[in-house]
Structure formats: C-alpha cells, structure tokens
Amino acid sequence: MKQVEIIVARDFSKTPIGRFESDGPFSAEVFRKTLLIPAFANYDVVTVVLDGVYGYGSSFLEEAFGGLIREGFLKQDLTSRLNLISDDDKFLCDEILSYINDSR
Amino acid sequence: MLIKQWAGSTVSPEALVEIVGYIQSSFPKVDIAITRDIYRVLAELITNVKHHAYPEDFKNTEGTDWKVIVSENELGIISLIVEDKGITIPRSVLRKLYSFHKSSQLGRKMMADDSLVIDEAINQREVDKKLVGGRGKGLLSITKLVDISRFNSLHIRSRNGVLNYYGTNKAIDLELQKTPLDGTSVEVRIATMKPTA
CB-based contact (8 Å) between A52 and chain B? Predict the structure, then answer.
C-alpha cells in the first residue's frame, strides 16, 4: 500500500488563507490542486498533518477538502484514504470531515 | 485602552501575521490555541470581505476594503473587530443566524450557510444551492468558537441590524433596526489578562 504524508506547514504554507486561486498562492484551491489531488492520484493513503500553521479559516478547509468532492471524489473513498492529524486543535479533523460529508 | 488598527484590500497573510504577532506580544497570557483562532477568524472574515462585501456594481469609496481594530477594555477583554464599508450583511443573514441558534437551543437542527443567505438577500432571489457549492459557513464557524469558549462573544453589526451571540444555551440578541453603520462590523471578544506593556 503506497502512502504519502503532506505536512501543510512544511509542504505548503504556515499561513494558509483564502478560498480560490484568485485569493493568492496560499489559498485552498492551490493547496487542493498542487498537493491533495496529485497525492490521491498517486497514493492509496494520504496523511495530512495540519499542525504548525498560524490557523485555518473555515472557507480554506471547506474548499480544500470539501472541494475534492466537487472535483469528483467519492465521499466514502476519500474518507477511507484520508488520514488527518492535528495535535494542535482537537476539533479540526472533525470539522474537515463535516465539510467533506456536507459538500455538494 | 490599548488600540491599534490595520487596513488593507487583499487576502494576504502578512497583515494577519503582524496582527497575531501584536496580540502575542501585547497579551502574552493569550493561549496559543486562541492565537490560532484569531488568525482563523481574521482569515475567514477578510476572505468574506473580498468575496461578498464589494460586488461589481458597488462603489467602494474607501481607500481600502477592510480594517482590523484591536483594543482592550478595563476588564482585560480584548476586542478584535473586522470592518468593511461594503454592501453590508443583509437582515436575512442576521435572522438566519439567530434562527439557527434558537433552533439548536431547542434541540432542532437547521442548515444555514452564510454565502447562500447573503447571495439570496443581495440578489433578492432564491439562489441555486448547487452552483454555490460549499461556500460560506464562516460566521457559523465563528459562533462555534464561542460555543467551545475560545471566545467570549460574537457581535455582528450591519446597516440592517445587530446580532450579539454569547454561546450555546446563553442569550442571543437580535435587533433588526437600521443602524448608522456603513458596511459591516464583526467583533469577537476574548477574555485575557492585562497586557504587560
């Protein structure tokens, strides 16, 4: 089973902000397109380490992860292959899963 | 009262990092989790301003799109305000946030989505929920931070009214009267110790 780990603070930015690419280089859409989608395309399990950043706006989280559903990923497949780690904020993983489940 | 202001027009992290740094240095007792939530709120509200406050047909007469004001009162409560002079939050948003939390208090579940109701109110029509996808939920996510006691309260003021939110099972006030405010002001209040400086 092929696995990959994405550490947001190391691999993307310590200052994620914005929803769309037009919001800037640290936006959720850029994160999804450059890191999440390639990871899911090439690996069976994707671990995302959320710690070490300044913080996440809800629109960033919704667009990054809920946006995968709008890109065509299936909810069950996505949640079974996505491993979220957040020691900084115990509510963060559940919040992300709710955005995936509520995405339309 | 300690007070400092920032203003800008873009959704860039530099100003937010500066604001968080200011709060950390002025209020060293503020927990690191709270500073993450402050960044989170700022990121959310400034992104909201960019996406909703200034539609194409709305003329922004200000030099900047948003302003952030940090102050502290004599009780050691930090106030963090994000202001814009845009189209303002419609009455229906305030009403729906109020209804959402009132229904939650009564044990009912009700879906609300900031973006949907903003678009609905601005455009005076029912929007296609499929088209707007998962946009919104920013203000709701901030009320949840009040619910888990990260913040003391949330205060939303628009040209059309005022909403004061103090957390689950606590008072929520809604006044749907015209206010003299241009645009929108969203304030979170955070209890902390006195600043060292």
Answer: no
